[in-house]
Amino acid sequence: xxxxxxxxxFVPIQRPSSFKFNGAWLYNYGIGIHLIExxxxxxxxxxxxxxxxNPKDNHISFQCRDVGLVKEARxxxxxxxxxxxxx
Length: 87
Known about the structure:
The chain is of the alpha+beta class. It contains two helices and three strands, in the order αβββα. InterPro entries: Glyas_Bleomycin-R_OHBP_Dase (IPR029068).
């Protein structure tokens, strides 16, 4: 959670209490992220050989025009807004 909050600037929001599994919902920049906790890492296959990256596979990405600006803003605890402004 710290990565999403402190590095990316997302804010936790309330998620439905009816879910029977641990997780978190976060929101900022007009988008939401839903995290689901997997209690057993053994449920995942161990990667034995390096596979090529498939850009159509499930993933999340973040874009910015100036990565230096984003790093500097996050270092100072600022939020970077679309268009490059800081708050």
